Amino acid sequence: MNLDVLGLFDNDYDTEGFRTCSVTGLKIHRSAENYVKLFGLTAVVALLVGGIFAFTVAMTRWEVVGLLQPSDFYIHLSLHAWNLLIFWMVFMEIAILYVGGPMVLGRRLPITRVAQTGYVSMVLGALVINVSIFLTSPPDTAPLLTAYAPLQSPPAFYAGVILFIVGAVVAALPFFLTLWRERREYPNRSLPLVAFGAFVTSIIAVEALVGGLITFVVTFLWRIDLIQWMDAAWYRQMYWTIGHGTQQINLAAMVTVWYFLTHVVGGAEVISEKVSRTAFILYLFFINLGAAHHLMSDPAVSVGWRIFNTSYAFYGAAFASMIHAFAIPAGLEAGRRKRGKGGGTFGWLTNAPWANPVFSATIFSIILFGFLGGITGVVMGQMQVNMTWHNTFATVGHFHGTVAVGTTLAFMGLVFFVVRTMFQRRLSFGRMASLQPFFYAGAMGIVVIMMMYVGILYGVPRRTAEIVRNIPGTEFSLQAASPLFAIFGVFAILAITAGTIFVVVAVASLLIGDRVTGPEDNADLVPDGGAATDDKPVHAYEMRGTFLICLVFMAVFIGSYVINWYVLTELWSVGV
Amino acid sequence: MSSPLEIPEDGWWDRNINRRESIWLGLSGIWSLIIFAWMSAFTRIGEQNPIGVTYQVSAREYQEKMQSYKEAASERGDALVPPDTDVFIAAFRFSWDGTPVVLEAGTEYDFHLSSYDVQHGFSIRPEHALSKQMNFQVLPGYEWILPMTFDEPGVYHVICNEYCGNGHRTMHGTIEVVDER
Q1: Which of A192, A391, A461 sits opposite B7 (nearest CB)?
Q2: Which of A3, A51, A265, A532 could form a disulfide with A338 if both were Cys (CB 3.0 to 4.6 A apart)?
């Protein structure tokens, strides 16, 4: 396939189609690079679409503005969710697989025809989903992400979902073939950590997608009346294999990106291959069980099922996340100390390349994901505490803490990195680009905290157009939450502005940005001091800064845990 | 140099682990065990557990149960007073059948929750303390029997927090808890 649109696919390759990246030193084949660009660009388009609906949705929930009618609200909310939580993320994740497989291993992308088919199917699926949601009319309702049967959505919606899921599985096949060939050629060689992380991600992805395929094929058959009865409990349990499973893909992909970007732009090293890989293995076995937290306040699942899923097993994955929480900053600390960039307890962090948005986006992603998304995920995943979080706005706060600040920021950093190294464009509006991650992380972080507060402190429900000032038909209101909603509204506007700046910078850089002409143009992406040379093993370097940060993290974790349990035990008694 | 982009050197499994990382592994592991043990123990010692019995029930069967419950119940104003300690509530678009209802503080009631049509969310909190709120999923086809004891008198508001259609936001019910002692 000869792709060359606007000069975006025209890097210099040798006669075999390879080139060497001046930043990462990777041997990159044209086929892999072009598909990474294609999937990445498509993801940014989805981010833009979803971001537009972020504005209408937030301005409706902020009832002082009250932008949309209730009949439109759920449609906008559904479009917001599908474009951001699914299309933006999954297109990026396929790109990450192609980076983690072919690029890191220095191979070409095999069976590009299959990658192309997967791409077309994903794009068609995304279009069908968007159009069918937009055109929803009674008796159908918009699906949000969950599409909880027996509430029915347009048949085309379910068909679109099936098309998209099949496309994503097909698009993952070239990655699997790459790894298979690598293993056949070098049966005794370990994979690089980033490739290993991508491999674990891809397995979690296929589990989730196949679960989703079963769910949505059956639901589609029900919707077109080939199946008469749809069991709500069956649907919920099946749906959440993909509903939360896709978010576990985001997590594993994001952690892989953390290892990748902290290394290439910050000089981080792997402090222990054994520990980091073990953590990925724990994800592989346990993380999908985290999906069970959606069923904690449900009937129809037994106590044993709940305790096994969230407690015995899911904490295997929580443990894994705590391992990465140390390993990644410690890698940065050790790597920078090795380069002579130590300086006291936190010097390695304060003298890091903060002006580089790839670096700052990655670090904010790590911090905010851990403190806002990770801690709350474990706390609300406790069977009993879940009663106070379930379906309140606090839940929305949790997943904005994981995906809107965590994953999205990591992927924004990655997009900037791809613009610089694969599209070979310098970032337009340099200063604005530098500040963008700070702006987005700060504003979105406050939005997330407000969401959690209104949910926990006032029991404000999610999925509602307006209810704080006025529940029609009653004097009762949740007016007390209004001041927090005002903060929410203002910072939501700021966060959306920061998101807009991201899209503007990324797109402008591609279209009008200066070309990267030589390695010196990307010199700021290479960690200070270049490759370190001494022979001291990484684990022998000081990691006291990271250790202190992790102790603070643990203190906040325990604090949130205790507060949530205290709030719970203040309630009237329920259950046996 | 140990790069995540390169194949690790031979013997990577046997490399030492930094002492601080080992300590962190220990702390994280212990914490994981504590939160597991606490959650499990709370099902035995705790007063707040979303446990209870579930039965499969069709919408029609539940409607019939609801009907005989209402016939047996007495009325106070426009509110029901249950005949015994079983309280039936049914969710349907866009109302809570069985509310308003008057209950006594300190008495353990068995709440029967089900839906006539789609999924709903039973989100309940007293008027005087919005932060004291609990939330449960209500499924059509299932009758969930959830024991509840209210400590404090007051008006408790129930709003639906699972999207159930355009009138979702109007779905509101009340439970009045009175002190009979």
Answers
A1: A192
A2: A532
Interface check for A514 against chain B (CB to CB < 8 A): the answer is: no
Q: Which residues of B touch A570 (CB under 8 A)?
A: 132
Q: Considering chain A, what percentage of its residues have pLDDT values greater than 70?
A: 98
Strands B120-126, A573-574: pairing is: unpaired
Per residue, what are the HEC states of A96-117? HHHHHHHHHHCCCCCCHHHHHH
pTM: 0.96
Any idea where the domains of chain B sit in the sequence? 13-48, 53-178
Residue of B nearest to A537 (CA): B1
Q: Does any CB of chain B come closer than 8 Å to the CB of residue A114?
A: no
Tell me the percentage of chain B whose pLDDT exceeds 70: 99
Which domains can be identified in chain A, with CATH numbers? Answer: 23-266 (1.20.210.10)
**Which of A144, A272, A466 shows the shortest C-beta gap to B21?**
A272
Q: With both helix axes pointing from N to C terminus, report the angle between A314-338 and A357-368 in degrees, rounded to the nearest 10.
A: 140
Environment class of B75 (CB within 10 Å of its CB; exposed 0-12, middle 13-18, buried 19+):
exposed
The DSSP annotation for A546-568 comes to HHHHHHHHHHHHHHHHHHHHHHH
- Give pLDDT, residue A1: 47
Which residues in chain B (112-171) have CB-CB distances under 8 A to chain A?
113, 117-119, 121, 123, 125, 127, 130-144, 146-152, 157, 159-166, 168-170
B97-110 average pLDDT score: 96
User: How far off is chain B from A348, nearest CA to CA, in Å?
Assistant: 17
Catalytic residue among B36, B42, B92, B122: B92
Give the DSSP H/E element, type plus range, for residue A20: strand A18-20
In this complex, do B35 and A544 lie within 8 Å of one another by their Cβ atoms?
A: no
**Model pLDDT for residues A432-488, shown as the tens digit of each residue:** 999 999 999 999 999 999 999 999 999 999 999 989 998 999 999 999 999 999 999
Is B92 annotated in the active site? yes
Using the predicted structure, report yes or no on whether residue A554 has a pLDDT greater than 50. Answer: yes
Which tens digit of pLDDT belongs to each residue from A273-284? Answer: 999 999 999 999
Q: Is A457 within 8 Å of B132 when comparing Cβ atoms? A: no
**C-alpha to C-alpha distance for B123 and A391, rounded to whole angstroms:** 9
The answer to whether A161 and A131 have CB atoms below 8 angstroms apart is no
Predicted-assembly ipTM surpassing the 0.90 threshold: yes
Note whether A369 and A247 are within 8 A (CB): no
How many Cβ pairs within 8 Å bridge chains A and B?
A: 308
Residues of B in contact with A478 (CB under 8 A): 130
Looking at 3.60.20.10, 2.60.40.420, 3.40.50.720, 2.30.30.240, the CATH number of the domain B53-178 comes to 2.60.40.420
Interchain CB distance below 8 Å, A576 and B131: no
Question: Please, which residues have CB within 8 angstroms of residue A191's CB and are 6 or more apart in sequence?
Answer: A105, A179, A182, A199, B7
Contact A387 B48 (CB under 8 A): yes
A467 and B35 in contact by Cβ < 8 A?
Answer: no
**Residues A525-535 pLDDT 10s:** 888 666 666 77
Cβ separation B18–A573 shorter than 8 A = no
Specify the pairing of strand B74-76 against strand A18-20: unpaired
- A215/A213 Cα distance (integer angstroms): 5
